[in-house]
Amino acid sequence: AYDQANGVLYGVDSATDQLITIDTATGAGTAVGGSGLSGVQGLAFDSSGTLFGTTTSTNELITINTTTGAGTAVGPLGTDAVLGLTYDTDDDIIFGATFGATRDLISINSTTGGGTTIGALGFDGVVGLAYDGSTGVLFGVDTNTDQLITIDQATGAGTAVGAIGFAALNSLTFAQVVPIPAAVWLFGSGLAMLGWFRRRAVV
Known about the structure:
This protein has one helix at about 195-200; strands at about 1-5, 10-15, 20, 30-35, 40-45, 50-55, 60-65, 70-75, 80-90, 95-100, 105-110, 115-120, 125-130, 135-140, 145-150, 160-165, 170-175, 185. The chain is mostly beta strands. The strands form five sheets. A four-stranded antiparallel β-sheet has the order 1-2-3-4, with no helix packed on it. The radius of gyration is 15 Å and the shape is globular.
Protein backbone atom coordinates (compact mmCIF):
# COMPACT_ATOMS: atom_id res chain seq x y z
CA ALA A 1 0.00 0.00 0.00
CA TYR A 2 1.27 3.44 -0.89
CA ASP A 3 1.05 6.26 1.65
CA GLN A 4 0.35 9.17 -0.66
CA ALA A 5 0.75 11.85 2.01
CA ASN A 6 4.25 10.75 3.02
CA GLY A 7 5.43 9.06 -0.17
CA VAL A 8 6.13 5.72 1.50
CA LEU A 9 5.39 2.26 0.11
CA TYR A 10 4.45 -0.43 2.65
CA GLY A 11 4.18 -4.20 2.53
CA VAL A 12 4.00 -7.13 4.91
CA ASP A 13 6.56 -9.91 5.19
CA SER A 14 4.31 -12.97 5.17
CA ALA A 15 6.95 -15.12 6.87
CA THR A 16 7.13 -12.89 9.96
CA ASP A 17 3.95 -10.78 9.69
CA GLN A 18 6.11 -7.68 10.02
CA LEU A 19 5.17 -4.37 8.44
CA ILE A 20 7.93 -3.20 6.12
CA THR A 21 8.70 -0.14 4.05
CA ILE A 22 9.91 -0.67 0.49
CA ASP A 23 12.42 1.52 -1.32
CA THR A 24 10.82 2.20 -4.72
CA ALA A 25 14.21 2.88 -6.30
CA THR A 26 15.96 -0.32 -5.20
CA GLY A 27 13.18 -2.65 -4.04
CA ALA A 28 14.87 -3.08 -0.66
CA GLY A 29 12.57 -3.68 2.31
CA THR A 30 13.10 -2.37 5.83
CA ALA A 31 11.26 -3.80 8.83
CA VAL A 32 9.04 -1.41 10.80
CA GLY A 33 7.84 -3.89 13.42
CA GLY A 34 5.77 -6.96 14.11
CA SER A 35 2.00 -6.78 13.69
CA GLY A 36 1.34 -9.14 16.59
CA LEU A 37 -1.11 -10.94 14.31
CA SER A 38 -0.80 -13.83 11.89
CA GLY A 39 -1.85 -14.16 8.29
CA VAL A 40 -1.80 -10.45 7.52
CA GLN A 41 -2.69 -9.92 3.88
CA GLY A 42 -4.16 -6.99 1.92
CA LEU A 43 -3.12 -3.43 2.80
CA ALA A 44 -4.85 -0.14 1.99
CA PHE A 45 -4.71 3.46 3.20
CA ASP A 46 -7.92 5.45 3.57
CA SER A 47 -8.22 9.21 3.09
CA SER A 48 -7.38 9.90 6.74
CA GLY A 49 -4.06 8.07 6.48
CA THR A 50 -5.18 4.99 8.41
CA LEU A 51 -3.56 1.79 7.18
CA PHE A 52 -5.98 -1.13 7.00
CA GLY A 53 -5.26 -4.79 6.45
CA THR A 54 -6.92 -8.19 6.68
CA THR A 55 -5.98 -11.41 8.41
CA THR A 56 -6.59 -14.91 7.11
CA SER A 57 -6.05 -16.44 10.56
CA THR A 58 -9.03 -14.67 12.16
CA ASN A 59 -10.74 -13.24 9.03
CA GLU A 60 -10.83 -9.74 10.47
CA LEU A 61 -10.29 -6.21 9.26
CA ILE A 62 -7.39 -4.63 11.13
CA THR A 63 -5.61 -1.31 11.41
CA ILE A 64 -1.82 -1.15 11.46
CA ASN A 65 0.32 1.46 13.18
CA THR A 66 2.83 2.68 10.59
CA THR A 67 5.30 3.73 13.30
CA THR A 68 5.42 0.45 15.23
CA GLY A 69 3.86 -2.08 12.85
CA ALA A 70 1.39 -3.17 15.54
CA GLY A 71 -1.97 -4.41 14.33
CA THR A 72 -5.34 -3.87 16.00
CA ALA A 73 -8.50 -5.79 15.16
CA VAL A 74 -11.45 -3.73 13.92
CA GLY A 75 -13.95 -6.55 13.58
CA PRO A 76 -14.90 -9.74 11.72
CA LEU A 77 -15.21 -9.55 7.95
CA GLY A 78 -17.98 -12.13 7.87
CA THR A 79 -16.25 -14.02 5.09
CA ASP A 80 -13.04 -15.98 4.73
CA ALA A 81 -9.77 -15.29 2.95
CA VAL A 82 -10.03 -11.64 1.98
CA LEU A 83 -6.67 -11.17 0.29
CA GLY A 84 -6.96 -8.12 -1.96
CA LEU A 85 -7.78 -4.74 -0.41
CA THR A 86 -8.03 -1.21 -1.77
CA TYR A 87 -9.62 2.14 -0.95
CA ASP A 88 -11.92 4.06 -3.30
CA THR A 89 -10.84 7.65 -2.71
CA ASP A 90 -13.86 9.08 -4.56
CA ASP A 91 -16.64 7.25 -2.71
CA ASP A 92 -14.87 6.51 0.60
CA ILE A 93 -15.24 2.72 0.25
CA ILE A 94 -12.86 -0.09 1.18
CA PHE A 95 -13.09 -2.91 -1.36
CA GLY A 96 -11.91 -6.46 -0.80
CA ALA A 97 -11.55 -9.58 -2.94
CA THR A 98 -12.46 -12.91 -1.38
CA PHE A 99 -10.51 -16.08 -2.02
CA GLY A 100 -12.46 -18.65 -0.03
CA ALA A 101 -15.65 -20.54 -0.79
CA THR A 102 -16.63 -17.67 -3.11
CA ARG A 103 -14.59 -15.33 -5.29
CA ASP A 104 -16.39 -12.02 -4.86
CA LEU A 105 -15.85 -8.31 -4.69
CA ILE A 106 -16.99 -7.00 -1.31
CA SER A 107 -17.27 -3.62 0.37
CA ILE A 108 -16.01 -3.35 3.94
CA ASN A 109 -17.27 -1.17 6.77
CA SER A 110 -14.21 0.55 8.22
CA THR A 111 -15.88 0.98 11.62
CA THR A 112 -17.15 -2.56 12.21
CA GLY A 113 -15.04 -4.58 9.77
CA GLY A 114 -18.13 -6.21 8.31
CA GLY A 115 -18.06 -7.13 4.63
CA THR A 116 -20.97 -6.89 2.17
CA THR A 117 -20.93 -8.95 -1.02
CA ILE A 118 -21.22 -6.93 -4.21
CA GLY A 119 -20.93 -9.75 -6.74
CA ALA A 120 -18.85 -12.49 -8.31
CA LEU A 121 -15.58 -11.41 -9.87
CA GLY A 122 -15.70 -14.04 -12.58
CA PHE A 123 -12.01 -14.77 -12.01
CA ASP A 124 -10.84 -17.33 -9.47
CA GLY A 125 -7.44 -15.91 -8.54
CA VAL A 126 -7.94 -12.21 -7.77
CA VAL A 127 -5.62 -11.41 -4.87
CA GLY A 128 -4.58 -7.82 -5.56
CA LEU A 129 -6.77 -4.74 -5.96
CA ALA A 130 -5.99 -1.09 -6.72
CA TYR A 131 -8.25 1.91 -7.28
CA ASP A 132 -7.12 4.57 -9.76
CA GLY A 133 -8.41 7.83 -8.33
CA SER A 134 -7.55 9.74 -11.52
CA THR A 135 -9.91 7.66 -13.66
CA GLY A 136 -12.26 6.02 -11.14
CA VAL A 137 -11.31 2.56 -12.37
CA LEU A 138 -10.90 -0.42 -10.03
CA PHE A 139 -8.17 -2.83 -11.12
CA GLY A 140 -7.28 -6.32 -10.00
CA VAL A 141 -4.65 -8.93 -10.74
CA ASP A 142 -5.70 -12.53 -11.36
CA THR A 143 -2.96 -15.00 -10.50
CA ASN A 144 -4.70 -17.94 -12.19
CA THR A 145 -4.49 -16.32 -15.61
CA ASP A 146 -1.74 -13.77 -14.85
CA GLN A 147 -3.91 -10.98 -16.23
CA LEU A 148 -4.66 -7.43 -15.25
CA ILE A 149 -8.42 -6.92 -14.99
CA THR A 150 -10.86 -4.08 -14.43
CA ILE A 151 -13.70 -4.58 -11.96
CA ASP A 152 -17.20 -3.09 -12.02
CA GLN A 153 -17.70 -1.54 -8.58
CA ALA A 154 -21.48 -1.93 -8.83
CA THR A 155 -21.64 -5.61 -9.87
CA GLY A 156 -18.21 -7.01 -8.98
CA ALA A 157 -17.74 -8.40 -12.48
CA GLY A 158 -14.19 -8.47 -13.78
CA THR A 159 -13.05 -7.85 -17.36
CA ALA A 160 -9.66 -8.90 -18.66
CA VAL A 161 -7.34 -6.11 -19.80
CA GLY A 162 -4.45 -8.30 -20.88
CA ALA A 163 -1.58 -10.54 -19.87
CA ILE A 164 0.88 -9.05 -17.38
CA GLY A 165 3.79 -11.07 -18.68
CA PHE A 166 4.91 -12.24 -15.23
CA ALA A 167 3.70 -15.18 -13.17
CA ALA A 168 2.13 -15.10 -9.69
CA LEU A 169 2.05 -11.34 -9.20
CA ASN A 170 -0.21 -10.88 -6.25
CA SER A 171 -0.26 -7.24 -5.19
CA LEU A 172 -1.25 -4.01 -6.85
CA THR A 173 -1.26 -0.33 -5.87
CA PHE A 174 -1.63 3.07 -7.48
CA ALA A 175 0.30 6.17 -6.58
CA GLN A 176 0.21 9.72 -7.80
CA VAL A 177 3.89 10.31 -8.43
CA VAL A 178 5.49 13.48 -9.79
CA PRO A 179 6.18 13.87 -12.67
CA ILE A 180 4.20 10.77 -13.66
CA PRO A 181 0.45 11.52 -13.35
CA ALA A 182 -0.46 8.00 -12.33
CA ALA A 183 1.85 5.04 -11.94
CA VAL A 184 0.92 1.49 -11.10
CA TRP A 185 3.34 -0.77 -9.29
CA LEU A 186 3.05 -4.52 -9.39
CA PHE A 187 4.94 -6.45 -6.76
CA GLY A 188 5.72 -10.16 -6.62
CA SER A 189 5.51 -12.17 -3.47
CA GLY A 190 9.05 -11.22 -2.41
CA LEU A 191 7.97 -7.62 -1.77
CA ALA A 192 4.27 -7.82 -1.21
CA MET A 193 1.87 -8.92 1.44
CA LEU A 194 0.50 -11.99 -0.27
CA GLY A 195 3.42 -14.38 -0.29
CA TRP A 196 1.33 -16.86 1.71
CA PHE A 197 -1.03 -17.30 -1.20
CA ARG A 198 1.77 -17.69 -3.69
CA ARG A 199 3.39 -20.50 -1.75
CA ARG A 200 0.09 -22.34 -1.51
CA ALA A 201 -1.07 -21.87 -5.08
CA VAL A 202 2.01 -21.98 -7.27
CA VAL A 203 3.35 -25.42 -8.10
